[in-house]
Give the backbone structure.
Amino acid sequence: MDTVSYPTAHQEAITITKRLTRQQSRELTREQLLQAAAELFAEHGVNGTSVEQIVEHAGYTRGAFYGNFEGKHQLVLALLDQHTQRELEEMQQLSLDAGSFDNLMEHLRSWYRQRDETLGSWLALRTELWLYGLRDPELLPVLAVRERRSRAALAQALEQGFAARSVAPPAPVEFLALVMYSLGDGLSIQRVLCPEDSDIDTVANAIELLMRSWSALSRNPAPAEEASRPSPGRPTTKGRTPSIEKPEKNP
Amino acid sequence: MDTVSYPTAHQEAITITKRLTRQQSRELTREQLLQAAAELFAEHGVNGTSVEQIVEHAGYTRGAFYGNFEGKHQLVLALLDQHTQRELEEMQQLSLDAGSFDNLMEHLRSWYRQRDETLGSWLALRTELWLYGLRDPELLPVLAVRERRSRAALAQALEQGFAARSVAPPAPVEFLALVMYSLGDGLSIQRVLCPEDSDIDTVANAIELLMRSWSALSRNPAPAEEASRPSPGRPTTKGRTPSIEKPEKNP
DNA sequence: CATTTCAGATACAGACCTGTATTTGGATAC
DNA sequence: GTATCCAAATACAGGTCTGTATCTGAAATG
């Protein structure tokens, strides 16, 4: 699976480079089908893409497809697995690399810069898979676990960051991670929708603002605030703004 | 178009309640088709829903459909129009009602509370339409304009809020509105994905935290911060974190 | 090399979906 | 009340997609 990859019938490529074993050949095919599917899904959506289009785009015929997957559903499953796995790894890498806030920010900034070119199709695919998972009651929990882990990795990075600055986080880091993670998603959406209203660093800048705000809040937690305010509807526990009441169950 | 609405053949309903004029009848049909489409799109996606399913769900046949729309594409257009229009109105209403921060927060809180029950399907539809618009080069700008207006309304509300507290916003309100708006989107996604990791007030709480953080930042803008930091990749204008450099072109 | 095996191509049958052309029956107009 | 009109139903012709069943030729095996 190294040289290779004229997208035509791969047998030709074989004779050129290296004889591929059957298994290698099969894996290559599978991978190319997944890749083709990813591209088409991003552009036309999962439901807007037929098996026929996928195999054509990959340079095969339907025989190859049904030899490697049970059907489109299973292919989407595989794709979803691959995709979320990669995202998780990226996030974990981030949490490993990030020592200080500034370091973390630098990583985030370059990450978003790299992604900017392909943000549209990347986000479209992500969204398609998200919707697909949302609609499959068996899939949603799996997706949720992956998402949770990504956020947990981010929470860890944040924890380090705060520790490095020796400021107390203004809320549980899990909550802050949730906020930051969500902000990244939401801003990416807006960037794709209205590219003129943001620039390549907007996401990173917004996150940086967030960080600095939180630091400021930690240093200067309670504004005067009209001391009254019966706070009518605020019963529950989880995302409470109040200061520090560390961990929830987050797995 | 008032009493009415047994979802069966509407002629029966007519005889029961009020004779509908032809035009009224037609509009009712159209509206019911749109409604049915919205529900099915949320559950199965635009491309996962056939015209046949739509008309069946609405209690008609394909004849009624093609009498009211040129095809599915045009129906989606109409739906998108309706949907974004309503969102815009909600946001504008918010900006009208909100005098103080606390007021604004209360509105937001109740808004998210009301929405929570139907958040999943609502977001699914929104996302479907977003993806649809994203893929149609003629549609994207239209969508962008709507989005921009919504954010502008929010920016206005924020401006009022800051003024009421007499704090200077830590960044252009347009930028803050972008952040807050995006945060709402992103958190909603996470809430649908992992309902256990957030509660009904999480979005509102997160936004409140954001507000309070910004206030804190305004009161206490520059932390010591390692005074060095060559700030390597930060050339552009738009979303800069730095303090106040008011308006962009935002229409 | 001869034989077996299997990845992928080809052929086919059934389901579904779209869009148009035609029909029907209640609303409108006189 | 009769004639007209039109919203919606019905009928039909084409197209596309899916999944399976069968075929083919190159790799594996000896």
Notes: Residues 139-165 of chain A form the longest helix (27 residues). Chain A touches chain B through 77 residues (CB under 8 Å).
